[in-house]
Structures are given as structure tokens and as C-alpha cells.
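Hypothesis: this fold can be encoded by more than one sequence.
Test: take the C-alpha cells below, design a sequence, compare later.
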């Protein structure tokens, strides 16, 4: 687990400095009248932190609902939230490229925990290496599309919160164990759903390389993406689009899956050229709480149901 500590002190917050994972809990965590101040970068991650932290933490999520994580531009209010935080949870792998300069400038003593550490990451394909120019590095950051990876998140979140807030450690552990059980059930359900799709129909095309972890773990095949690589900030060439359209027609692809936070113009062009319909999914953000993807568990069930229905 990669952890960084901000260097500037926030004396007004009364927070005790910590220089490593093995440091002492903050004063706030030992005061039964105050809660651990926790920041999560994106809504999907924030929901997982909320489940483990429960009412024992004060949670702030930086990215609003419907935000594309690849292009998020933080505000001064976001910087203030980071400066006031005891712990910041981020995905990492270049997804939150905005966060590093914010951490350098925000001040405070927040412990920053990179949750993708410890996960076996998908390595970038050779032809996608130019995507590193957009801050994505050499690995796929969309780890949450495999619940087994989110189990790694949960364990790291529980360990961090329990260490920083020892008075509530048992509650964090209990909630984490219950959630791990739900994630295990989700894993089995996804496997059953995909097994109901004929093998010949399991080829998928996406707007960018979003569903790689889902495809690899559950037996789908990503045969192409409209935008090359792992970032929505990339742009395809005319030849790349032509090659993709040929592959869609040659392989009998049944649907093109597009994230709701992504500009669909290119995808609609491919739809018009190939006659293959677009299916819109939640990718980098949850829906409103009362929507179809208001939590991570609902997010995954909604997406998988839509994918399976389209491929059948």
C-alpha cells in the first residue's frame, strides 16, 4: 500500500503528525466527541469507504456524481477538504492525476492511501503506450470492475481506519467482514450471469478500455475500443476508427458499450456506420442515490445486467 504524508502542519486542526503507516493515531481519532475526517476521490471509492467507515467517520467525496475521473478539475473547496483531512483514499494508477499537485499545495497532514497498490494490474498494450502521455501510466486504472479488486480496497480501508481510530476498530472490522461477504456473493452472481451468454456472443466494444478487469475475470473479450487506451482524453485516428468498424462487422459484435460520463459523439458515428446499437453504462461514477447505480453493488449489478442482456 503506497502512503504519503503531507508536510505542512495544520495547527488549528489539532492533528498529531504521523510519518509512516506505523504512526500513532491522530488526536481526533482518540477523542470520542469527534470523527475521523476522511476524503475519497471518486464516488465509487467513496461508497466503499462509507460502507466500511459507517457513522464513525466524516466522509467527503471530491468528484461530484456524473464526473469523468480522467478529466476532473478540482476546486479550492476540494483543496480545503484535503487540507482538513486525516486520511485521503485514492485509487491511483494515474486515475487522479489532479491529486498530486493538490496534495503539494493544500497543506495539512493527511495520510494518503493508494488503494490500487496490492492489486495485480493489467498492463498497457504495446499499441496503447502513447496513452501514458495522458497521465495513465503503463497500467489500467479501472480496477473496480472486478469485485475481487474491491475486496483489496476494503481490507486496506479497514486497516487504515482501524489504525487511525482504534476506539472504533472493531466496528470497522465488522463492517468490512460483512461487506467482503457481499462482494463474494456479487462475484458469484456476475460469473453466473456471464455464463448465460453464448460463447460466440461474448465479444465487446467499449468507448475506451474500461472493462478490461471485468472481461478478463469473467470470460468476456474486448475486441476494440473507440478511443485507444485507458483514458477518455485520447483521440482515435481515422484509420483506427475504420479498423474498429471493420472488426465490429467481421466479428458480429452485438453492442457498443459507452460510459454515461463520456462524450458519445464518436460512438454515435460508429453506431451509424455499423448499425450496432449503443448501450450506456455507469463507468467512472455512481448514479444518484435513488438511481439504478446508487451504490457500488448496484453499480455492478446494473452494468452486468445491461451487458448480458445486450449480448444475448
Amino acid at each position: 500500500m503506497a502512503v504519503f504524508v503531507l508536510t505542512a502542519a495544520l495547527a488549528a486542526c489539532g492533528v498529531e503528525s504521523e510519518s509512516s503507516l506505523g504512526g500513532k493515531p491522530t488526536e481526533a481519532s482518540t477523542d470520542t466527541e469527534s470523527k475521523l475526517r476522511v476524503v475519497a476521490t471518486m464516488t465509487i471509492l467513496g461508497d466503499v469507504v462509507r460502507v466500511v467507515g459507517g457513522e464513525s467517520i466524516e466522509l467527503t467525496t471530491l468528484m461530484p456524481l456524473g464526473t469523468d475521473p480522467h478529466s476532473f478539475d478540482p476546486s479550492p473547496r476540494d483543496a480545503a477538504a484535503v487540507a482538513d483531512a486525516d486520511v485521503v483514499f485514492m485509487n491511483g494508477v494515474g486515475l487522479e492525476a489532479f491529486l498530486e499537485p493538490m496534495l503539494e499545495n493544500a497543506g495539512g497532514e493527511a495520510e494518503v492511501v493508494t488503494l490500487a497498490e496490492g492489486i495485480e494490474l493489467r498492463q498497457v498494450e504495446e499499441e496503447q503506450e502513447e496513452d501514458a502521455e495522458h497521465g495513465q501510466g503503463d497500467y489500467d486504472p479501472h480496477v473496480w470492475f472486478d469485485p475481487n479488486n474491491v475486496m483489496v480496497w476494503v481490507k486496506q480501508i479497514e486497516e487504515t481506519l482501524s489504525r487511525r481510530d482504534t476506539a472504533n476498530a472493531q466496528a470497522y472490522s465488522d463492517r468490512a467482514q460483512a461487506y467482503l461477504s457481499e462482494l463474494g456473493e456479487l462475484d458469484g452472481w456476475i460469473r453466473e450471469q456471464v455464463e448465460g451468454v453464448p460463447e460466440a456472443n461474448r465479444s465487446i466494444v467499449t468507448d475506451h478500455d474500461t472493462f478490461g478487469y471485468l472481461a478478463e475475470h469473467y470470460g468476456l473479450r474486448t475486441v476494440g475500443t473507440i478511443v485507444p487506451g485507458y483514458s477518455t482524453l485520447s483521440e482515435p485516428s481515422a484509420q483506427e476508427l475504420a479498423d474498429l468498424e471493420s472488426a465490429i462487422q467481421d466479428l458480429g459484435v452485438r453492442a457498443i458499450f459507452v460510459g454515461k460520463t463520456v462524450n458519445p459523439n464518436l460512438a454515435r458515428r460508429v453506431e451509424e456506420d455499423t448499425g450496432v446499437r449503443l448501450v450506456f453504462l455507469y463507468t467512472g461514477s455512481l448514479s444518484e442515490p435513488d438511481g439504478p447505480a446508487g451504490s457500488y453493488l448496484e453499480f455492478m449489478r446494473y452494468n452486468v445486467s445491461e451487458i448480458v442482456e445486450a449480448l444475448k
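Residues 1-32, 127-136 have pLDDT under 50 and may be disordered. Residues 169-195 form the longest helix (27 residues).
Hypothesis status: open.
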